[in-house]
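Every protein is a chain of amino acids, and every chain bends into a shape of its own. The protein below has been through that process, and both of its lines are reproduced in full.
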Amino acid sequence: MTAAGRDLLPTAGLRGIAAFLRALVRRSEVWLVVCAVIVGVMAGALVVLMSRISQLAHVLIFGIPLDQHLSASAVVTPAVALTAPVLGGLALGAMEWLRRRRNIPIAVDPVEANALQGGRMSLRDSLVVSVQTLISNGCGASVGLEAGYSQIGAGLASRLGLGLRLRRNDLRILVGCGAAGAIAAAFNAPLTGAFYAFELIIGFYSIANAASVAAAALAAVLTTQILGGAPYSIQVAPTANIQLAHYGVILVLGMLVSTLGIAVMRAVVLVERGFEASRLPYWLRPAAGGLLVGALALISPQVLAAGHGAMQLDLPLNMPAATLAALIGLKLTATLISLGSGFRGGLFFASLFVGSLAGKLFSKGVDATLPGLGMDHVSCALAGMGVLAVAVVGGPLTMSFMVLETTGDFGLTGAVLTACIAASLFVRATFGYSFSTWRLHLRGETIRSAHDVGWIRTMTVGKLMRRDARTIPAAAPLAEFRRRYPLGSASTVIALDDQERYAGMVSVPEAFAEGRDGGVVADIARLRDTAFTPQMNIKDALALFDQSESEALAVIDDDRKVLGALTEAYAIRRYAAEVEQANRGLMGD
């Protein structure tokens, strides 16, 4: 055997193994569950690795003990607090400069991947996002690591699925498994991780995806337990019993905190625009933001990093209302500056921390106005934690299960679930987006969830049209039209002007109507300003059919040259077939 032949053997062997595994996954859902377990183990291991790197950075940079969280520090050295976020910001600015110089597109996150890309993500881009999140959190910026956890877990899952050439729906489920494993591992909460995937990444719950997602979440949690424990595990002492009267109070808390969540999401945009208007170079903005965050840390170190240590410290304490209000303002300001200036990270844990503080502040007001109600402060804190996270991140069941897995209190979980559902409806009705979909909306996307609409984007008029469109010069006599297109040969014909550009649609039955013996084609041409472009998607096409009340329309280019034609009947048939196929995927058929 030649050397070239020997070199081809490993490649051919790998392709054969991939083909064999792909056939197994396609043949049985059990093998998709096996893939999900593998993804969960990898996600859990990476969560532990990233959290250890971040903690080590905090120890080395800020000089805290190895077993202490940065945000739980009583004080920080002023010089370090002011310089560490600035240096981290400069590193991120350099990475952004390099991305723009090389024209590298912005990384696709799991929600966008599943909604628009059929689950396709770049592992390289996901690694870059995770590194940027580590730099941001490690230098003390007021962001959490959960965005990086979810990104790398989903990116690995997508890479595995693409390597196996999984079907579109299976790939989307596997991406959800990666995100589920990451969140479950981060919080030591398999139900939270699973429903994070169902509600936020995959966009639906079904029997078809339940086994895979649950397996990934459980595998990730077991992996973190073996490797040393979850980084964001929340420990809460038992709370007082929730009475029926408390439900109404928690609902009021839900509405107030939801309003705060909407304000936070809108404020992120305002802060970003403020940095853009500052005339600072884009690569220098994170450093400027880091300096401001460091200054806030001199007032209270609780603004640094995700806030896990601060939350654990503050939950059992009976703090004055002024202190709670000050901490809420400081943490939100630091988080908004961090995200608005260009640091990488998520609002997940920041919303949990601020929500818990808002809940405790609300309970102070309840005690002052209704002293006999006996509302527990920790219960209000947990309710506020869940509701603000629902308002910002989304997922009422996700956050309700987080409260359940944190406390084991079904009574409190029922009240929190009620408030979370009400908050979700309120935010959707008044604002319409979670933080992730809001950021996509600002980039020009219109999605409001992770439901798969990517197939609609790819089903364009250019792919559906017939290129052999029937045409006739608009100046041709009607007698010539009748000769070329007798009744029954076609329903509509495209008229062309003297430069062979689109000049309208002509109805064949109308051309044969009584009283039409003379004249030219242009006399009966209509819809001169109504036509498709090849880039239009199927939904836009159906809307234009409905608006024009025409059975067929021309497809034209920018110069009004006719490229083809599309009939309403064919468009509806293809759309219905794709919807049916998508629904079969949802049900696992």
